[in-house]
Amino acid sequence: MESAVRESALWGVIGGLLFLVLAFGYRLAVGVDLSVLVVLLVGIVVAVATTGLSYLVGRRLP
User: Which of 18, 26, 38, 53 is the most exposed, fewest CB within 10 Å of its CB?
Assistant: First the structure.
């Protein structure tokens, strides 16, 4: 696997997990009833978007 692809995938994992931690922390702190399924789906979308954007931006930077 190309190193740029691997780095982008890792940034995607980090972004998705960070979103999940923040969303569930907000759920615990405020007591808002967020659907777990919706939070997981949005976390997946965030991970995919982070992967794509980090790949595009990483190829433009020296």
Answer: 38
**Closest C-alpha to 7, from 52, 62, 46:** 52
Structural domain boundaries in the chain = 3-60
Cα torsion angle, 36, 48, 20, 23, sign: negative
Predicted pLDDT of residue 59:
78
How is residue 5 annotated by DSSP?
H
> 58, 15 in Cβ contact below 8 A?
no
